């Protein structure tokens, strides 16, 4: 006769087996409940209303914090999430960003979903970036994401974060900004240009470097020549049917080639048959969140 203990052991074994078969390894089961703090100011950015004469003011840059309740008081990994939206729309409330922030916070990451300046903020930009409002907004997003990394590192102790375990995840426009932060010199894209010094609240002097990066259907073409062998481990996901001119599949192929050339640890997932925004991509039963968790566990957490 099977005892109660044996029945429980059998049930656990069956559930674990089914989870592995279904692409849900037991080590990624949710562990924590999530505490959400909304609208934390991580810095400020120069903006105007687009009218003449131009009058520059400061706009608060906001993020939402997703903390794993009951996690260790120190040493936790951090993940900064950067939404897409063509530098014209969307926010830290983007459905997928909220979903991903909760997923990773449940598994021990302190997550920060951020806003950044958009086209309708009319931000300044230097040189050729100041051609049209869209390119100015793209440059401003790069500046703002660096400010967000500096904020997280400067406040690591308050959030229980290890300042040497900060990762970045960007999708679409957020990946264009994110890869800029991941691979460029810390002093590049630091300001909006001459005459626009780093505002005092933006933690000038703190490093904006990240230790791992997840690049979802963006483009790195603008920073390929800035890459170096000490750039962070990188995971790329991109649909091979993405023909968006700004974020074509070919741009990720070129990024992948540069990572190979520089011998930077990386994973490149070609989402067969997907266009732009391959959120439903799966590989051997694992979705993007699970693949990214495995990647970050290996290259950021070290387990």
In words, what does this structure look like?
This protein has about 300 residues and is an alpha/beta fold. It has two domains: about 30 residues; about 270 residues, Rossmann fold, CATH 3.40.50. It contains seven helices and ten strands. The strands form two sheets. Strands 1-2-4-3-5-6-7-8 form an eight-stranded mixed β-sheet, with helices on both faces. It has a two-stranded antiparallel sheet with strand order 9-10. Helix 3 crosses helix 5. The longest helix has 22 residues. The radius of gyration is 20 Å and the shape is globular. About 45% of the residues are buried. The N terminus is likely disordered.
Quick recap:
The chain has helices at residues 4-21, 95-106, 133-154, 156-159, 173-183, 249-261, 288-301, and strands spanning 34-47, 57-68, 76-82, 110-114, 161-171, 212-216, 234-239, 266-271, 282-283, 286-287. It is an alpha/beta fold and 303 residues long.
